[in-house]
Specification:
The protein contains 13 helices and 19 strands. With about 375 residues, it is of the alpha/beta class. The strands form 3 sheets. The chain has an 8-stranded parallel barrel with strand order 2-3-4-5-6-7-8-9, surrounded by 4 helices. A 6-stranded antiparallel barrel has the order 10-13-16-15-14-17. The chain has a two-stranded antiparallel ribbon with strand order 11-12. Helix 1 packs across helix 3, helix 7 packs parallel to helix 8 and helix 12 crosses helix 13. It is elongated and about 75 Å long.
Length: about 375
């Protein structure tokens, strides 16, 4: 019998969350962002729930090939563009749109021999200072692309650093939005500037022609804990669950796990769960991280081990060996009502973000569509 841990991907939740992006930006088309193997959900598994998207955005050419193999014939955008000149051959063959963020990528296009010109999105570094042309260099780059026979349509894009919150005590997007609007004024081309945070928080100011729905389609919340998934009506697209494989009875003074990080102050019962950091559960989660046992909320105890973690069974007299444990996502139905543990709460307890937990589920964990 296999170890009882598994991850479930909820296709209906993906479709629902994609619909939320459309509702936020009804006049825009939606890129479903499936980079990092669809944020750990798996491109093939996520595709069925996201196939109503207008296009898919990602980083890797191999992932683009997988989408085409699924018979997706719509737009695919390489968010970081190509990484070497020969990548342009695959862009031509697969009909990929791609970002252009540096002079070298324009040089490669100028040398590229193609029968069909490429669709590109010229990226502006509006203040995040990751990729993109500075405002001073942007129009010259646009002019270079416009003059190339290898280039068809030129779109315009940027990325916000603080759309999920304020920046230095002020409006999180104002400085970048001002730079973007001033730099691109009068330039032709489709525009995409809104990530999930901007789509949820600032749709009237950022929707443009396309929005890029990333974390939100997987049920993660970009501005947690200011808002939670219920506030934005987002549903978890991934559930990580396991079972209690052992029970221990502690007396006052007994300790739990490596480093004796938890000490019992009274008699208590604990469950040992088949899940650890080798499965992708964060070792940084200390005593008190939320967990569901048989749909009831309780807490972890002590350090997370490679293959196991401990949970408090106090107040759960009916739970024990074989009980279902929800590490995050959808729990079992109890009394006609479903239970749920948002991934963002688990991430907060571990000092990280839900994005990382989704992407970190280990290869040894079986993943199936629910």
């Amino acid at each position: 019998m296999p170890r009882p841990i598994e991850a479930l991907i909820h296709t209906e939740a993906l479709a629902h969350n994609l619909g939320r992006a459309r509702a936020q930006a009804p006049n825009a088309r939606v890129w479903a962002v499936v980079k990092a193997n669809a944020y750990g959900h798996g491109v093939e598994r996520a595709f069925e729930g996201l196939r109503a998207a207008d296009g898919f955005a990602l980083l890797d050419l191999a992932e683009a090939e997988r989408l085409r193999a699924l018979d997706w014939r719509g737009p695919i955008l390489l968010l970081e563009g190509v990484f070497e000149p020969r990548d342009l051959e695959l862009c031509s063959r697969l009909k990929l749109w791609h970002a252009v963020h540096c002079e070298e990528q324009i040089d490669w296009l100028a040398m590229h021999k193609t029968h069909e010109p490429h669709r590109v999105f010229l990226k502006l570094n509006s203040g995040m200072n990751r990729l993109g042309f500075t405002p001073a260099a942007f129009r010259a780059a646009y002019a270079r692309l416009e003059a190339l026979p290898q280039v068809d349509e030129i779109g315009l894009m940027t990325h916000f650093s603080d759309a999920d919150a304020q920046r230095l005590g002020a409006d999180g997007i104002a400085h970048q939005l001002a730079a973007y609007e001033a730099t691109t004024e009068g330039l032709a081309g489709e525009r995409t500037i809104a990530n999930s945070a901007a789509t949820l928080r600032h749709p009237a100011r950022t929707a443009n022609d396309w929005v890029r729905a990333g974390i939100m389609v997987y049920g993660g919340v970009p501005d947690f804990p200011e808002h939670d998934a219920a506030h934005w009506d987002l549903r978890p697209a991934m559930t990580l669950r396991s079972k209690v494989i052992g029970v221990q009875h502690l007396q006052p003074g007994d300790t739990v796990g490596y480093g004796s990080a938890f000490t019992a102050t009274e008699a208590m019962r604990i469950g040992i769960v088949a899940c650890g950091y080798a499965d992708g559960y964060p070792r940084s989660a200390k005593t008190g991280a939320p967990v569901l046992v048989d749909g009831q909320r309780t807490r972890t105890l002590g350090r997370v081990s490679m293959d196991m973690l401990a949970v408090d069974l106090g107040g759960l007299p009916a739970s024990g060996f074989g009980s279902e444990v929800t590490l995050w996502g959808e729990g079992p139905v109890i009394g006609g009502k479903g239970s749920r543990l948002p991934i963002d709460e688990v991430a907060q307890a571990a000092g990280t973000i839900g994005y990382e937990l989704m992407c970190a589920v280990a290869p040894r964990v079986p993943i199936t569509r629910a």
